[in-house]
Write a structure and sequence with these properties.
- InterPro entries: DUF3667.
- It is built from 13 helices and 2 strands; from the N terminus they run ααααααββααααααα.
- The protein is mainly α.
- The protein has 3 domains: 1-35, no CATH class; 69-113 and 182-327, no CATH class; 127-178, no CATH class.
- It has a two-stranded antiparallel sheet with strand order 1-2.
- A hairpin with a 2-residue loop joins strand 1 (131-134) and strand 2 (137-140).
- The protein is extended, with a radius of gyration of 27 Å.
- It starts with 37 loop residues before the first helix and ends with a helix.
- 14% of the residues are buried.
């Protein structure tokens, strides 16, 4: 309860009705003094953003440790003891995508050599000046233009059958635009743009995830709303788990602990596999608890639901990657 003093005037400032005690029985607004201290504003902000009381920490505890418990509790009508699913997801999403900007970079300028990048750099000339085929006619891919003006000039000079179509022309323009950046700058810009687009893509994908879950269950017994709440809690778990792992990886960079680079790489690979296994187990366990089917039936459905969504999620990532490339400036 707020520590602010109750107003002497019993008239509610929100709806105009008489307030018998502290809260208006008509609209629920607290009838307190409107002028508040800075400390009160800070506490009020913290409570509004995180619902900073026992229900917040209780929600986080059950979210990490008891799959589907929050979903079943919410659908059963017990909703005041925990954060609402939408509010929980918004808060966890905000933390998950804001925390990386606050974490220290303890790795410095250390970078593992990327064999893919090394091979690409070794064949840069070949990729840039290689000969391609269009409509049975050979032409130099990019050897004749490096600027927009050169591209336009070449486009006009080519025979009608060899001209770039609208999509290829737009693609080449984009490649010329991005060509002004160095490889490190381009990678940094891509990562920033992708990180900016990822939360939007994830939010858009959640209804698809819930739809796939719903396809495996009786529509007469379960509503789409039920699957949506289950999905909100599962995605909140994923984001929170990723956030905790991101914090651990940032504060304990393995490349500084192990002098041998390959050892750190192996440990990262093993830890990633364990984390992925945790996500699969959490979903399977939550699915069994949520829908109450036998272990065998639930396990089979969980397997298909999870990996169908995983395949669709990779399609989403590919789409986001393409969108990121063509929206970079």
């Amino acid at each position: 309860m707020s520590k602010h003093h109750v107003r002497k005037d019993p008239t509610c400032q929100n709806c105009g009705h008489t307030v018998p005690q502290r809260y208006c029985s008509y609209c629920g607004q607290e009838n307190i003094e409107t002028r508040q201290s800075f400390g009160h504003l800070v506490r009020h902000f913290a409570e509004d953003v995180t619902h900073y009381d026992n229900s917040f920490w209780r929600t986080i505890k059950y979210l990490l440790g008891r799959p589907a418990y929050l979903t079943k509790t919410y659908l059963a009508g017990k909703r005041n003891s925990f954060l609402p699913p939408v509010r929980l997801y918004i808060f966890v999403s905000f933390v998950a995508f804001f925390i990386p900007y606050l974490l220290p970079d303890l790795t410095g300028d250390f970078k593992y050599p990327d064999p893919v990048i090394q091979r690409a750099e070794a064949h840069t000339d070949e990729a840039l000046y290689g000969i391609g085929l269009r409509n049975g006619t050979q032409f130099y891919a990019r050897s004749h233009y490096h600027t927009q003006a050169q591209l336009d000039s070449l486009q006009q000079a080519l025979p009608a059958g060899n001209k770039l179509n609208a999509f290829d022309y737009w693609t080449e323009k984009k490649m010329i635009e991005l060509g002004k950046y160095k490889q490190e700058e381009l990678a940094e810009k891509f990562n920033e743009s992708f990180a900016h687009n990822f939360p939007k893509g994830l939010f858009v994908y959640m209804p698809v995830f819930a739809l796939v879950v719903g396809l495996f269950h009786n529509r007469k017994r379960w509503y789409y709303f039920d699957h949506a709440i289950f999905t909100l809690h599962y995605f909140s778990f994923l984001l929170l788990a990723f956030t905790l792992l991101n914090i651990v990886n940032s504060l304990l960079p393995l490349n500084l602990v192990f002098s041998y680079e390959r050892t750190a790489t192996y440990i990262y690979a093993i830890s990633s596999l364990l984390v992925f296994s945790w996500f699969v187990y959490y979903f399977a366990r939550g699915h069994h608890k949520m829908y109450g089917e036998s272990m065998m039936i639930s396990a089979l459905k969980s397997f298909f639901i999870f990996f169908i969504n995983l395949a669709l999620f990779f399609v989403l990532l590919a789409g986001l990657g393409i969108l990121t490339v063509f929206t970079m400036h």
